[in-house]
Every structure is written in structure tokens, then in C-alpha cells.
Amino acid sequence: LDRQSTLWSRYVWRGNQRRGFGEVLATGYEALDRHLAGGGWPRGALTEIYLDHYGIGELSLLMPALARLSDAEVERKWIVWIAPPFMPYAPALVRQGLRLERLLLVHPSARRRDAFWAIEQALRSGGSAAVFAWVRYADQTVLRRLQLAAEERQCWTVLFRPLAALREGSPAALKLALSSEDAMTRIDILKCRGAQPGRLMLELAGAERHANGGEAEW
Amino acid sequence: MNGALADSTPRGGAHDAAPAAPAAGAGSRPRAVWLAAHLPELRARAPQESSAQLAVIAAAALELTPLVSPEPPADLLLEVGGSLKLFGGLAAIRAALAEKIARQGLRFHLCAAPTPRAALWLARAAQADAPDGDRLADRLAPLPLPVTGWPAGILELLGDMGVRTVGDCLRLPRDGFARRIGRDCLLELDRALGRADQPRDAFSLPGKLGFQFDLPSESIVLDSIVAAVDVLLERLVAALRERQAQIAEFELLAHHERHPPTGSAWRLVEPADELARLKTLIRDRLERIAWPAPVVRLSLATGELRLKQFRAASLFVDDPNAVDPTVAARCLLERLAASCGAGGVHGLAFAADHRPERASRQVGQDALAGAAPPLPERAPARDRPLWMLHVPRPLREAERRLMFLSGPERIAGGWWDGADVNRDYYVVRTTRGDRLWIYRDRAAPRQWYLHGLFG
Known about the structure:
The structure holds two protein chains of two kinds.
Chain A: H1 3-8, E1 24-25, H2 30-35, E2 41-42, E3 46-50, H3 63-71, E4 78-82, E5 87-88, H4 90-95, E6 103-106, H5 112-124, E7 128-134, H6 140-153, E8 156-161, E9 174-181, E10 184-192, E11 198-202
Parallel strand pairs in A: 3-8, 3-9, 4-6, 4-7, 7-8
Antiparallel strand pairs in A: 1-2, 9-10, 10-11
Helix pairs in contact in A: 5-6
Chain B: E1 34-38, H1 47-61, E2 68-71, E3 75-79, H2 84-87, H3 90-103, E4 109-113, H4 116-124, H5 136-140, H6 152-160, H7 166-170, H8 174-180, H9 183-192, E5 210-219, H10 222-243, E6 245-256, E7 259-272, H11 275-286, E8 295-302, E9 305-307, H12 325-340, E10 345-350, H13 356-359, E11 360-363, H14 365-369, E12 387-394, E13 403-413, E14 421-429, E15 435-441, E16 448-453
Antiparallel strand pairs in B: 1-3, 1-4, 2-3, 5-8, 6-7, 6-8, 6-9, 10-11, 12-16, 13-14, 14-15, 15-16
């Protein structure tokens, strides 16, 4: 990718000519955009993010693109989070620019198929702009169905899964593994349809920027 | 000579010289316009049948004005003076009403007049409109007396006196008329001419519906329960269609032998009367129910019925590609809420409260379905973790090997509403590399807590 298009990808959503990838969402991190086919998150495809513990910038990685998506006034679609492991925190989301009224949090029962039912509904309805789901194990058939639905609906779909689930294999178009290393977030691109696997380190927006917390104003 | 007519001054011909009803505050109130619909075919039907059909039309007519009053067996009255502007004139309202009646496959005659009686009588006689009150008496005069719907005995008595039209009545002396024919008929005449006010009961829909179905044989198999539910839903939808109504909430009870019934309740984002949509919503939930025992009977109870909201096109169509995204988004909310239960689906709102627990709160379905709230006036000033624990969790001894990245940030206050906090917050990194938001309670025993994660 040339510099020009990388630059543009920060501001606009572009259709991509490459087959099988479709529209992308600029990630908001130039270094990451360079590694991804089309220069951003694949919109109409399944993305899987593998990680073993939370709090390593896994949401910060997605927030710039999600915030921009939530601010698109064209259609009033939901941003659906299914079975999140903790409560998302409104002040932090607002600070990242997310339009809260677009956010729909779904807590299905603990049964696995209920979570997948909810994911599939969210994808197929045509009423979601993005679907994030926290799931553990999934069989290939289910994942393939989700991949197809995401493609058909042009819905940005991200599954968060434990590293152990990597053994299962999956038809996702993009697979990343996240870990923490030297106070940075390490991103291993395990599979990216239309681009090479790779690795990069990102300093994700976080608290350590202001190392001197100091007194609060209260 | 008394009551409502005390201030009219009868002399000679009892009615012709009487002034029109005193117009208190004339000009300030919109002029009353009554539209009457006469449906001659309903006269021939059984009373129950004709009043049911009248109720259907009345319910549909409520869309045009809140003041709808059925006159069994064969007439309907609407006060449309207040709706003229909204619908763009009498002709438009008349056309809308005509369409609603035609949908029932009935013949009709519509007539507008300044008083309900006049409109009714003119409609029954298939006359043209009497748009203003000045010459109302002249318009009513030629009408044959049967249009009044007075009891047959009275009509016979008047006929014997040679009184055959409304005009003939109006020429009789009031005192004599009241004495010989009765006050009620005199009052009717005065009301027709606008000399006396006529209070009317507005029409309203019946409240709730309930249905029961005994399963052919007790069953715990989903398919046979779903089949039974479908029977109930078909009955429900037929009843709703008859009443031109929709439901916004309903409850399904599955009864068992020797077991308390299993209940599930639904609250819909948009009122419903579509069979396919209700079936889908119920099936989504039934698939998740673990029945404690075989089901012997199902009962379905609705909440208050709502008037059907007519739309240009159906919102809930089966082909999702044809649906506009906003509608698709509402349908999704409804389906998820119906299957996950009320607490299982929610949104998030930001509150300008410095106590971390208060700054973020869950908002329910209703708020989500409504209009977008304004953006917060004051964006949060500080970096906060994207993940929070529902309840802060005490840090275990083994978790205390932490690298402090920032802090302390003192957050204190809230004594005014009893939920006071007094804490020192820190951003820390664990040995695994995750960033956490922890605090130390400043009150004894000065315990450490984990509150959030920088996701």
C-alpha cells in the first residue's frame, strides 16, 4: 500500500478492489492498517481476537473504528456487545467518542448456543453495524454461518476467544492474537485474508500516558 | 317549559322563533362539525352482530377523531371539527371514513351537520350536508319523522295528528308538544337545532383479551406446544383484527398437572398484531424454557389493547432485505429482549457524577427504543478504564505484586445521598502485563479493591 492510501484510510471508509475483502474500517492505528489487507478492519467479515486475559488494550484497539462507526449518521443501527466479560464503562466509552445510544449490551444465558443464537440474530437482522461477542468454544459450522451472515450484511463482527481456542481452526477472515509485552500490546496477525501474517507492537491509548496522576479535583 | 329550554322564548309556533344556542365565547372555540354515517344494511342484522360491526368501524374511525360514538343498530357519529385542520378539510375526513366503511363491505351514507342529531337524521334520509347552522331548521323540516328513530307509538300518535315531517313538529306549540308527546322528543328537536347541548359518550376499546387452549394430550415436546401456541395466536390475531387493535404486552401461562404453571411475559418494542411476528417472538422464548412437567393447557392474556397504528407499509415484513435499517434495528432489539428477558438486554448511559459507580448506568429497552439522548455536556475529563467490575472486588494478597503507573487520584464525596465514597485510585500494571484500576478505601480497614480494567 502506498502512503497516500494509508493516510486516507484514517478518515474515510474505502471500498477495496481485492476480492473477498470488501469494505474496510480504518483502525485508527497506522501501523496496524499497514498490516491489514485493504488497510483496515474487514467490515463484512468475521474477525477473531485471541487473548488470555483482559485489560491489555483489547478494546482500545477497536475503539477508534467503533467510535467512528457509531457516529455515522446514515442509519441508526446498533453496536451490539454480546456476553461481555465485564461492564463497559460509559465515561471511558464517551471519552473515546462512542455514541452510547447506539450501544446494545446483550447477556444471554450461560448456555453456549444462546450466545450464538444472539450473535446470529444480531448479524442477520440487518439492524447491526457491528457485533462484538465474547465466546469460548465454537464449532466450525457455526462460525461459517456467522462468517456468511457478516458478509451478507456488511456487519463488522469480532469474536473474542481464549488462546486455547486457536486449536479448533476457524473460517474467520482475520485472526489476531493479543498479549502484553514490555508495557506494550503485542499483536500477532495469524491470518489475514489477502495479506501476510505479521507481528507488531502498539502502545494502545491508556493510562500510563499521564504517569503523574496527582491529586484529583474533588 | 323549563330545563334546558328555559331561556328560549316560545310564542306562536313553538320552535321557529327560538334563537340558536347561546354562543358563549363565540369564535374562540372551533365550530363543531358532526359527521354521521348511516349503514342501512345493519338494521336487518341481529343486534349483536350489528353492534360488533359498528364497533369495528368505530375503532377504525378513532383514527380520525377521538370523539366517536356508535348509535346502534345502524349509525355512527363523529365529531370532526377538531380534526379538520389535521386532515386537510371535511372532504378528506369523509373520504377516509368512507374507505374504512367500504372495507367492511357495507353500503353507507355520510352527512355532516353542526349538531349530531341533524347529521344523523339527514344521513338516515340520505340528504346532502348541512354545513352551517343558520338554515338548519329549513333543512330538517322536510325530513319524514321516522328518521328520528322515535318509538313507533309516538310516531303513530303524531301520524294520527297529521304530523309527518320534522317541520310539522316544529310548527306545534312547545307546551302542547311536551305534554302530549313527551319532554324527550322535545329535547331531541332542540338538540337537532342546536338549541340544547348534547353530551355524548366517547367510544373506547375494550380493555384486554384472554384465551385458553387445552392440549389434545399432555405434552412436553416443543413442537406440540408450539402448535398449541399457534392456535392461541390465531385466535388472538383474529380478535385483534376485529377490534382494529394491537397488543404491546402479553403473558403466556403453561399449566401442568400438580405443578404451578410456567409463565413467560413479553413486552414489545412496537405494538403488534401480525401473526408471523408474534409466532417468532414466542418460539424464540419457548425454545429456551425447561418445562418442569408436561403441559396440559395454555392460556394467553394480553395487557391493555392499543388502537391499531396504521402505517403506509408494514414495518415487520419477512424479507429482511426490504426493511429499512432503523426498523431492522428495532426488530432486533425486540427479538433479543423477548428471548433474553428484560434484564438481558440494555443500553448504557453516562451521568456526570464523579463517583465511578454512578457515572455509568444501565438503561432499559424503553430508553433504547426512544429518541437519542443529547450528548453529555461535559465529556469525562480523565482516562477511565473501559471495563468495570459490577462490584469492586477485594485484591487478594497474591495479586499485590503491582507496578504503580499513576495515582493516587482521590475520589471522595456522595455523603449527600448516602452512597459516599472516599478512595484513592491508582493505575497499576500486573506481572502479566494487564493494566488495572484499583483503589484503597480510606476508611478502616483501608482495604485494596480492584475496580476496573484498561481493556
